[in-house]
Each structure stands twice: as C-alpha cells, then as structure tokens.
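Quick one - inputs below.
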Amino acid sequence: MARKKSSKQKQRKVKPRQAKQSSVDNYLYVAIPNVKEFRRNILEPARDLIDNIKGYESLKALQEEKKQLLVNIANLVKELQASVSKIERLLPQGLIANALKQAELELKKFEKKKFRIEKDLQSQSHESDQSIATSKISKLFSTGLEQESASPKALEPETSLGETSSSNSLNQEQVTSQESVDKISSIIEERLSKL
Amino acid sequence: MDGKSVFVKVDHYKELLDIMDFVKLKIQEAEREIEKLRSLRAKEDEEIDAWAEKLDDIKRKIAGLYSQVFAPE
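Output:
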C-alpha cells in the first residue's frame, strides 16, 4: 500500500512541472517605451468600438423607421387604388371609354387599310397567276394544234421541238413569275413606306 | 362630334369631388412619405459611411498596436 501511495505522489508531482513548462513557453517580454501613449492606443479603439456599436443601434432604428415608412407608402398606394376604382365607377362610362373608343376606331381604320392592301396584293398576284395560266394554256393549245396538224412521221422531231419549246416556256414562266414577285415586293415596300 | 360640345350627365358629383380631394391629399401624403424615405436613406448612407470610417480607424490603430507589441523596430 505504501508503494502505491508513493507512485500517486510521483504522478502529482509530474503534472505541475508540465504546466510550468507550457506557461514558460507562452511568456514574452516586450519593452514599451511610452506607456501612456500605449494605453491611449488601447483605449481609443475600445472607445471607437463602443461608438460603432451605438452607430449600429442608430442604423437599426433608421431601418425600422424605413420599414414603417414603406408600409405606410404601401397602404397609401392601396387606398389610392381603391379611390381611383371608385372614381372609375362613379364617372360616366362615356367619359372614361371615350379615349378607349377613339383608340379602337383608329385601330379599326388601320386594320381596314391593312386588309385593303392585302386584298390588292392578293388580286395582283392572282392576276399575274391568271395571266401565267392563260399563257400556259394558249401555248399548250398552240403546240397541240401544231402537233395535230403535223404529219405522224414528223412527230418525233416536233416532239423534241415541243420539249424545247416547253422548256423555253418554262423559263419564260420562271422569268415572268420572278418579275411578278419583284413587282409585288416593290408594291409592298411602297405601301409599307406610305403606312 | 366635330367641334360640337357634348353634355354628359355626372351622377354623385359631390361624392366624386370628395374622392378627388381625398386622392389629392393621399398623393401629397405619399409624396411626403417618399421624401422622408429619401432623407432616411441619405441618413442611413451617412451612418454607414461613418461606421466604415470608424472601423478603418480601429483597424489602423490595432495594426499599430500589433506592430508595437509583436514587431518592434
């Protein structure tokens, strides 16, 4: 038992030694030449920090006030909206709707103009299509008559000629169609510029 | 309609006038509130600027202290 106690005592002795060593490691001696200035330098930031905390409080109060103001403004806007709707209800509809009607009339006029222009353009395109179709038909008829009038022996070269003529006519049609497209596009541009 | 005057009957015109006055008042109130909000915002900006300045000052002082204690010349 006596041996055990001695071991415990040894353990107790060891611990404070370790603590002393660690505290010795943290020590540092610094020479301060002007103590008063040093103290002032420590105290001033502390005072400034307190001022800053005060400033934060005042900022918080300002933000609260701002929130309240925003709520007030929102309520005012709601009241204004309600009163404006009341005015709309009480005023004769003719007065309110007058501007709307005028706008609608202008819109209708514009739509009519647009419709007329579109119709004109369509009729012009139809006319051009019709002229192309009539030219096609006349050409077909003419070739058919020529084929009928010609002898059966001379059919083959004629058919070849017919093919060439048909190709020519196709080219002509393409040209006419391109011209018509150009015309239409120019008309559209003119109308658009007028609008 | 061309140049001719049109007469429209307005019912409850007194009520309408009252509402108009109310709307005017409310608009004035809203304008005042907005002005207050603007001034508050300006104050807030000033406070924040002062705060930032003070913080910078504190930072500078602490840096001076640190240099005095831990890195003496």
